[in-house]
Design a protein that fits this description.
Oligomer: heterodimer
Number of helices of chain B: 11
Order of helices and strands of chain B: HEEEEEEHEEEHHHEHEHEHEHHHEEE
Number of strands of chain A: 18
Largest sheet of chain A: 9 strands, mixed
Strand content of chain A: 15-25%
CATH class of the largest domain in chain A: Alpha Beta
CATH superfamily of chain B: Metal-dependent hydrolases
Radius of gyration of chain B: 23 Å
Order of helices and strands of chain A: EEEEEEEHEEEEHHEHEHEHEHHHEEEH
Largest sheet of chain B: 8 strands, mixed
Helix content of chain B: 10-25%
Shape of chain A: globular
CATH superfamily of the largest domain in chain A: Metal-dependent hydrolases
CATH architecture of chain B: Alpha-Beta Barrel
Strand content of chain B: 15-25%
Distance between the termini of chain B: 31 Å
CATH topology of the largest domain in chain A: TIM Barrel
Number of domains of chain B: 1
Number of strands of chain B: 16
Structural class of chain B: alpha/beta
CATH class of chain B: Alpha Beta
Largest interface: A-B, 52 and 58 residues
Helix content of chain A: 10-25%
Distance between the termini of chain A: 31 Å
Chain lengths: 415, 481
């Protein structure tokens, strides 16, 4: 199943390293065009120039024969800390969380904390993710001691230093029982504290002793109170309902992450046009915020008209996002909708829909050619391209595999 | 960070231990060789050994004949258009054709697949149940690095909703283990996945208990953080060795006692007084039981070099390690594990959440499976993962095939059926579809090595415990009423 990159193509004239033609693919566009049989995708200068049939490659352009294999947009890795952490339990390798000692109400909130500044494109997690088709992720700060975790943004996973995607900046806020330690033990105080922070932004003169925000924090939060995107991590239906009303009242553009009970308020979410980023495998009453967790959460939300995306919230296992989509499909979601929830939808949610997440003209050529059904656990990525450049399909893990497989084969051969 | 947080919970689990039955005369009945459920009458409470199984499969109806299924037997065989007959809680026949006995209920499984009930050798359901609340955190007796005397079953909350979710995923048997905070965390229990109000009513009749041991980062982090041993890997090894050395001494004391008792009972000196038995030590009883093979050692151990240390240690004290659990680096030692008959109970793809998992690769299971005699197991250690062991096996199989290994589904299904049964010492009873074994059977709506596959029907000892088409009969925890 090796990818035939035809370079019968000798001298490359006016062909850049980000040009190619993929021929004869089963193209899942994740766009209005739906799925195209036996279609070609032409990439010029890292962008999709054309999608159609019978497209010709200019002389010198690499041609990939897909032989009917599935081609999808590059996948969304979820809300992660890829490039912000190497080993979870080793604090010296983790940059995703601001730990300025609890309790939060005695200390300043720091919405100005922006994790994208710590992004390391050379992290060992980056190749592990991208050879599985994960071409971008949303960097999300984590927080234990604060309601406001800080800001994050989308990054491309091709190893470039300037990986942050303009327009995707997002504020992350914890809500509900997971944030009780940061709100004096009661979720009611989450509104109380947020009220105070908003007032400090709106009326800086009132921010005297006991202020939650520093001047930098006021500036940062102000942008989010003027229509900025704010991800609220919440599961309980009642919390989701109140927090979206609260966010809208104060000028924020809310997104719900988690949302195990979102299906209970699907209509309100649809009406308010609030998307939900969820883990489709959550079906246990993991705590009293999630007694309503169920496997068809995604299906029910989709049916109600809510835009959904998937996230396993796991940096090392961002590749599992595809399995989330497959399981949602096994529980009633259409396969197209399941694929959209790890491609087009998250791109739209984070303001990148015009650029990423679909296979259509003008989009950045983040593409994945699969060995089979892209949602299947028995399928692997045969080749990945980011911005039209082929990804070297190696990681530290494939090198470990190759070393020990060879040793094992030779030791078994001796027996 | 969510999965990490839940993992660091697991990282702090522990518990258990039991009675070295051979050592303590009074516990002969403890060995739990229960009669088969269909024939057993409940013994009077006084006659029953404490905590022993009261599992009763339930009333057996007419024989069940499943026809036209793709059958993966769990022994490495595949039968297309196969049949399987369940009668009296046992598998009566398996093959391309099986005659229907009079009165048999026939299930047409055309287009569907049949496998043995899945077995998870590493679960914390019931001891770290949902909801994950402080009052429920019963999996690690993290008060001492050696708590071999505690038993996971004494923490097990049968109402954990995770059990019925696992049943929907085709899991019929599982071992519930203490966590890994401790060097020796206590005894694990093997249960049948049936709804019950007591753990005794779930206990797999006759199954040996496990002894949970843990290498590496967890014990040294938990105790080193408290400025007490162990705080290093060398401290870990001293801890195991001293514990087993103490157990050897303890066993000698009992042997001496038993020798004196024999003399006394032979009445060599008519006026002799009976010897006084040594004081029972529940921790050491567990270790003696491990050395005697009466409980099976299940060792949480990630790194290849540490597995080699543990194999040496096992040899020093004369016990056998049944399986290394989590072994992210098991592939580096695959030929030795196979040669020594030690299973690798592994995840399909977890890695990097801690340093000892940094070298985890997706081909780990396939590589451990590869050498002659290799015993690879897909385990969960997760209330999510246990619901889709078939998918985890599918991922591991796919990676092996991509690496050039020949792993058809009939081989890979062993990773979640007969191999875990072997590591739990219950392979004579379950884990494969062979005449005479327990009728633990799953009918899947298609190829179980697919993300779209769902279990249609799950039988435990011949009793239909889950039927996707009948939501009303689905077991439901009291908690979820």
């Amino acid at each position: 199943m090796a990818v035939a990159i035809c370079a019968a193509c000798g001298v490359a004239v006016s062909v850049s390293a980000q040009d190619l033609l993929i021929r004869g693919a089963h193209v899942h566009t994740a766009a209005a065009a739906g799925t195209l049989e036996n279609a070609d995708v032409l990439v010029r200068a890292g962008r999709i120039a054309e999608v159609g049939t019978g497209l010709a490659a200019p002389a010198g352009m690499p041609v990939v024969e897909a032989q009917g294999r599935a081609l999808t947009p590059g996948l969304f890795g979820g809300l992660t800390q890829i490039g912000l952490e190497e080993v979870g339990l080793e604090p010296s390798t983790v940059d995703a969380e601001l730990q300025l000692q609890a309790p939060a109400w005695q200390h300043h909130w720091r919405p100005e904390f922006d994790v994208t500044r710590a992004f390391n494109p050379r992290s060992s997690l980056v190749p592990v993710a991208r050879i599985e088709g994960v071409t971008w992720t949303m960097l999300a700060p984590t927080a234990e001691y604060s309601l406001i975790a800080g800001q994050g943004a989308a990054v491309a996973l091709d190893g470039r230093f300037d990986a942050v995607q303009d327009g995707s900046q997002t504020l992350f806020v914890n809500w509900g029982s997971a944030a009780l330690a940061a709100s004096g033990g009661s979720r009611a105080a989450q509104y109380m504290l947020f009220d105070q922070a908003i007032r400090e932004v709106r009326e800086p003169a009132t921010a005297g002793e006991g202020a939650l925000l520093l001047p930098e924090g006021r500036t940062a939060l102000k942008a989010y109170l003027a229509g900025g995107r704010v991800v609220f991590r919440a599961h309980r239906a009642a919390d989701i309902r109140s927090v979206i009303a609260y966010a809208k009242r104060h000028g924020m553009t809310p997104v719900i992450a988690g949302g195990d009970e979102a299906w209970l308020v699907a209509k309100e979410l649809a009406t308010a046009e609030v998307p939900v980023i969820l883990d489709s495998l959550d079906n246990l009453p993991a705590d009293f915020d999630r007694l309503g967790a169920r496997l068809d959460n995604a299906t029910l939300l989709q049916q109600a008209g809510v835009r959904i995306a998937f996230s396993h919230d796991d940096s090392h296992q961002s590749r599992k996002n595809r399995q989330l989509a497959g399981n949602a499909a096994a529980h009633g979601l259409s396969r197209d909708a399941a694929l959209a929830a790890i491609t087009a939808n998250p791109a739209d949610i984070f303001g990148l829909g015009g650029k990423r997440g679909r296979i259509e003209r003008g989009q950045v050529a983040d593409l994945v050619l699969w060995s089979g059904d892209p949602l299947e656990v028995t399928t692997v990525a045969d080749q990945v391209w980011i911005a039209g450049r082929p990804v070297e399909m190696r990681s530290r893990q494939t090198e470990l595999r190759d070393r020990y497989l060879e040793l094992l084969r030779s030791s078994q051969a001796e027996h | 960070m969510k999965p990490l947080a839940s993992r660091s919970n697991f990282v702090q689990k522990s518990l258990l231990a039991a009675v070295g039955c051979a050592v303590i005369t009074a516990c002969a009945a403890q060995s739990q060789v229960a009669p088969r459920p269909e024939t057993r009458a409940e013994p009077p409470a006084a006659a029953r050994a404490p905590f022993s199984s009261t599992y009763d499969a339930g009333e057996q109806g007419a024989p069940i004949l499943i026809l036209h299924a793709t059958v993966l037997t769990g022994t490495g065989a595949r039968i297309d258009d196969g049949a399987i007959l369940l009668a009296n809680g046992r598998i009566a026949a398996v093959g391309p054709q099986v005659a229907a006995p009079p009165g048999a209920r026939v299930i047409d499984a055309s287009g569907r697949w049949v496998t043995p009930g899945l077995i998870d050798v590493h679960s914390h359901l019931g001891v770290y149940p949902s909801p994950q609340l402080r009052a429920h955190s019963d999996g690690n007796e993290a008060t001492d690095p050696v708590t071999a005397g505690v038993w996971a079953e004494h923490s097990l909350w049968p109402q954990d909703p995770g059990f019925e979710r696992a049943l929907e995923g085709g899991v019929t048997t599982m071992q519930i283990l203490p966590g890994s905070a401790n060097l020796i965390g206590g005894r694990g229990v093997t249960v049948k996945n049936v709804w019950a109000t007591t753990y005794q009513a779930m206990k797999f009749p006759g199954a040996k208990q496990g002894l949970k041991m843990a290498c590496g980062e967890n014990p040294k982090r938990v105790y080193g953080g408290r400025q007490k041993p162990p705080s290093t890997r060398m401290g870990n090894v001293e801890g195991y060795r001293q514990a087993f050395a103490d157990a050897q001494d303890y066993e000698e004391q009992w042997q001496e006692y038993e020798a004196k008792l024999a003399v006394f009972e032979a009445k060599v000196k008519p006026d002799a007084t009976p010897p006084k038995p040594p004081k029972r030590d529940l921790r050491l009883e567990s270790l003696v039981a491990a050395m005697r093979g009466e409980v099976l050692v299940h060792n949480h151990c990630y790194r290849a070099d540490e597995m080699a240390t543990m194999l040496d240690l096992a040899s020093e004290f004369g016990f056998k390690i049944s399986a290394f659990h989590h072994g992210a680096e098991a592939y580096k030692l695959a030929d030795r594990l196979a040669a020594e008959g030690v299973c690798g109970a592994l995840w399909a793809d977890w890695w990097g959440f801690k340093l000892e998992a940094y070298d985890g690769i997706q081909e780990n299971i396939a590589l451990v499976d590869y050498p002659a005699g290799g015993c690879a197991i897909v385990h969960s250690d997760s209330p999510e993962g246990i619901q889709r062991l078939n998918q985890e096996a599918a991922k591991a199989m796919t990676r092996g095939v991509r690496a050039g290994l020949d792993i058809p589904p009939e081989r890979a299904i062993r990773w979640v059926t007969s191999n875990p049964a072997r590591s739990l010492g219950i392979d004579a009873e379950t884990g494969s579809l062979e005449a005479g074994k327990m009728a633990d059977v799953v009918i899947w709506n298609g190829d179980p090595f697919s993300v779209y596959a769902l279990a249609d029907q799950v039988f435990v000892d011949g009793i239909l415990r889950f039927d996707r088409s009948k939501p009303a009969m689905k077991p439901r925890s009291d908690f979820e009423l």
